[in-house]
Design a protein that fits this description.
Blueprint lengths: L1 H18 L2 E2 H5 L12 E3 L5 E3 L3 H7 L5 E3 L7 E2 L12 E3 L7 E2 L34 E3 L20 E3 L20 E3 L20 E3 L6 H4 L8 H6 L6 E3 L7 H10 L4 E3 L1
Parallel strand pairs: 1-3, 2-4, 4-6, 5-7, 6-8, 8-9, 9-10, 10-11, 11-12, 12-13
């Protein structure tokens, strides 16, 4: 009987530990008090993190960091300017958390503020994405985002963006500023319409739009012309996912005719 009680207590302790709130500082422990030059990848996924306290110090201790994995945690909020000092970051994975929104604001100091010293900065004017202007890969899939800030359009170097499995009902007009984007995944959201600037994504090769609500806006061609096909016509698309949007066959056919070299999955 005693052994069973000990086993029960031990199992309870394991479960309690696994669900306890943890910060980046707690997860890294003493490693956050040491310098790690030359380290290019840091994997903090599946650590139960729900507090980004200590993340700014990661930028200092890992000055050459290029890839940061924070997926599959319990992060709800991305504070303003939290990535400001990640000067070399190219790949950021924040997928499968519980992020509900991203703060809008300026992306950098030199361009948006015209000042050189960080101590002069008013943090309340920074975006959650500040400091990520050189980012190439960003994943925010599997969160609870209902909208994106206008500042997302300032991520000019972004070539891959994963936003599937959120609750996005619209995209900001600044989205067309993502000129370098080659892969965009927007599957399983609540999008009924795309911004007019979407057509400016002129190097986009892969586009995922399945499981949205595009039929609400694009099933009514104007003067026999499909607005959806027009929006996509200047893109060098090779693969487009459009299934489960309640789009009429005529709309799908128009997209296929407009994009003869693309694999349109509908």
């Amino acid at each position: 009987m005693l052994s069973k009680q000990i086993l029960t207590i031990f199992c309870f302790a394991l479960v309690t530990t696994s669900i306890a709130a943890r910060s980046v500082r707690e997860v890294l422990g003493v490693e956050l008090r040491r310098n790690h030059p030359g380290v290019k990848k840091l994997d903090l996924s599946r650590k139960g993190i729900d507090d980004l306290d200590g993340l700014r110090e990661v930028a200092t201790r890992y000055p050459d960091l290029k890839k940061l994995h924070l997926e599959s945690n319990r992060i709800v909020e991305i504070p303003r300017g939290i990535f400001l000092d990640f000067n070399h970051l190219e790949h950021l994975d924040l997928g499968y958390n519980a992020i509900t929104h991203l703060y809008d604001g300026a992306l950098s100091l030199s361009i948006d503020f015209g000042i050189a010293r960080k101590r002069e900065l008013d943090p309340s004017r920074l975006s959650s994405l500040a400091g990520l202007s050189g980012l190439g890969i960003l994943s925010l899939r599997g969160n609870n985002l209902k909208s994106l800030p206008e500042s997302v359009g300032g991520l000019r170097e972004l070539i891959g963006l994963w936003l599937e499995r959120n609750q996005l009902s619209s995209l900001p007009e600044s989205f067309g500023g993502l000129w370098s984007l080659k892969k965009l995944m927007l599957n399983s959201n609540r999008l009924s319409r795309l911004p007019e600037s979407f057509g400016d994504l002129t190097v986009l090769g892969t586009l995922g739009l399945s499981n949205n609500l595009l039929g609400q806006a694009y099933n009514h061609p104007a003067m026999g012309v499909s607005p959806l096909a027009q929006l996509l016509q200047n893109m060098p698309l090779k693969e487009v996912e459009l299934y489960n949007n309640n789009l009429q066959p005529a709309v799908i056919n128009a997209v296929r005719k407009t994009l003869p070299n693309a694999r349109v999955v509908a």
